Amino acid sequence: MKVYFVGAGPGAPDLITLRGAKLLGSVQMVLYAGSLVPTEMLQHCRPDAELIDTAELDLEQQQACYERAKAQDLDVVRLHSGDPAIYGATAEQMRRLEALGIAYEVVPGVSSFTAAASAVSAELTKPEVSQSVILTRVSGRASAVPELESIARLAEHQATMCIFLSGPHLKKIVADLRLHYPDSTPVTLVYRATWPDQRVYQGTLATVLEETKRGAWNLTTMMLVGAALDKGRQVESSLYSKDFTHLFRVVKKNKDKEKNKSAAEPEEISVNGDEV
């Protein structure tokens, strides 16, 4: 008997990994977060699988499902939205499984922050602009954010920031961001990325509050902010430059240079056992 923590991805049923879909089609019991995972995702499950919506279950009730599965020797998929490693509340479940002597495995999934970036065809990192991505959120009723990780403190870096569940807190978030980011900094809001009712807003820190209706972006909204989102900043990496040499691609003129250099150099000789 084994429990598999599977990342369902951001919402679209075909954005689950092949491994995740295969596991859904093989196990006898599936626990899924019904408030976050679309029911269309369950099409990957085997017809006779027991499907348990955990939206109304507390942790002890979920543990009881694992205990019953162990008694019946049933493999289980615990289906989480996005990727289980980010705001998945998986560690507390794993501790209980370890105490019960139940083996488990984690299968990663597509996170909502990358899905949000894809919704606007954005690259979150650009050379000389931002090479760091900060994943964060604001304090909520279920989980507090440490003071050192407040939006205002993290904004000091002016890196690309992806703020989960940002909708209900837009006014405070924007005020904290403007302490360090210029008002012209691009902002993207993506509501329910990859779901049929996905909505997107693109603007700046100066315009986002004026151009969005209060309450329209609550719940599952991802906020992307940072200079890297500015498509007008045309900065290119050297990686694919015709003049850039690396382990797998040697520029022709450098090949010729190395050949000529080798031909002109004298052979090595040894003096008192030392090469010169």
From TrEMBL:
Belongs to the precorrin methyltransferase family. Pfam families: TP_methylase (PF00590). Pathway: Cofactor biosynthesis; adenosylcobalamin biosynthesis. Transmembrane segments: none annotated. Gene3D superfamilies: Cobalt-precorrin-4 Transmethylase, Domain 1, Methyltransferase, Cobalt-precorrin-4 Transmethylase, Domain 2. Residues 254-264 have a biased composition (Basic and acidic residues). Residues 2-208 form the Tetrapyrrole methylase domain. SUPFAM superfamilies: Tetrapyrrole methylase. Keywords: Cobalamin biosynthesis, Methyltransferase, S-adenosyl-L-methionine, Transferase. Residues 254-276 are annotated as: Disordered. This is Precorrin-4 C11-methyltransferase.
